[in-house]
Amino acid sequence: MEKISTNKGLLDRFLNAIEKAGNKLPDPAVLFLGLMLLTWLFSTLLAPIDFGEFDPRTGEKLFIQNLLTGERLADFLSRMISIFINFPPLGVVLLAMLGVGVAEYSGYINAGLKYLLSFTPQALLTPILILVAIVSHTAADAGYVLVIPLGGIIFYAAGRHPLAGIAATFAGVSGGFSANFIPSAIDPLLQSFTQSAAQIIDPSITLNPLNNIIFTGISSIVVIGVGWYLTDKIIEPRLNRTNPVDKDLSDIPKMEDLKPIEKRAFKIASSVMLLGLIGLFFWASPVDSSLRSENGEITSFAAPLMRSIVPLIFLIFWIPGIIFGFISTSYKSSTDVIASMSKSMGSMAHYIVMAFFCALFIDAFAQSNIGAMTALKGAAFLQSLQLPSQVTVVGIIFLSAFVNLLVGSASAKWALISPVFVPMLMQLGISPDLTQAAYRIGDSVSNIITPLLPYFPLVVIFCQKYVKKTGIGTLVSIMLPYSIYLLVIWTAFLLIYWSLGIPLGLQSTYEYPAM
Questions:
Q1: CA distance 344 to 350
Q2: Which residue from 60, 157, 329, 507 puts its CA 20 to 30 A from 86's CA?
């Protein structure tokens, strides 16, 4: 017992130090502004240097772009509005929150949680939440704006620390981004870059879009197990000791028993939602459905259905929320509905400010080529070491995790470094399927500790709903154990999986040429 208490004390001191240091950073909006200015400065200092790297996407020599020239500054000013308005997470968050806000303030979500908690054993609450978070990957980024805040509400309603619920779902949505047993749009997207890179060595090679689906499916069990243990045994106990929930939580729905009229309203509203989902299924089922892409695919980014996920989420929550509100009498008129939506947007005010500066920084960082140069230099260094195959695969995972701290988009990173990694490992006898699986691990595990993730500030906002003092350092200290455990355990799992020869996915191989 004394040893366990000592270990907890050491862990608390370590994570508390990270939290304290991180919270001394300025407000995230100011932080992003400072990072943008630093990017401008370093782009000016590094622009004259010839690093000798070629951009695999264009075949041309890659240079750091000086962002402080008159031409670049004029371009920046002329694009500032479009940079902000077209910032991908902004529209996703605001539209989804409009629908979720109606469902929340009408009491519909609250009623659903009461039903969920009535038949879900307390002991299984954490793994079920992480499972739902993993499945949410199928709906692109919807998990960030839907599942993560629900994790906090569900834990709070169950008498547990809400930040632990947010942490568990954040770990499932983002830390386990590449763990899913359901195909999603990210599968064919990554495969397309992997295949193009592999054709540098073998122009005739073709890869199945689901070449990692078995591995990512079984990886779901790994992510759930790691997240379950950490949440219940390490994260939540520490939060109870160091970050107690604020007493003033008047905005959080209370969880009294449902009244008869609320039960009736919930059943009717949920029936309407179910009918809508069934109608959507039959609309999307035919091969020539207008919700599919021109070649009949439904999971590709070209399919209208995939581009409509967030508007559909809005409708799925907005319509039942309104129905529940009027039947349960929590809404008396349409004015109440609009008031709910306005209140929901009011809670997003801080995020909108952060999104403005975050969008400007991410655009500047991409325009400067600093992230691209870092990725290529890291890949070149890894190649120069000429390590054994297993060590090289581990190196790719760790390098991908590091680059992920600087370049957030999974597809953008893979488009950049796959032409280096995939041919390099093919020449070592490692298949493109295995290289892609290794990359997907590294791309996932560091999402949850980088403030440069576009949704990271949003998760901070969700946490502040329960613990107002929450800052960047708080969230990083909460998520760091997940990141470290997932990196080590998931990497070891891939090596064991590889040694057992279990297929990675459809028509996948471990060796090149295939044997």
A1: 12
A2: 60
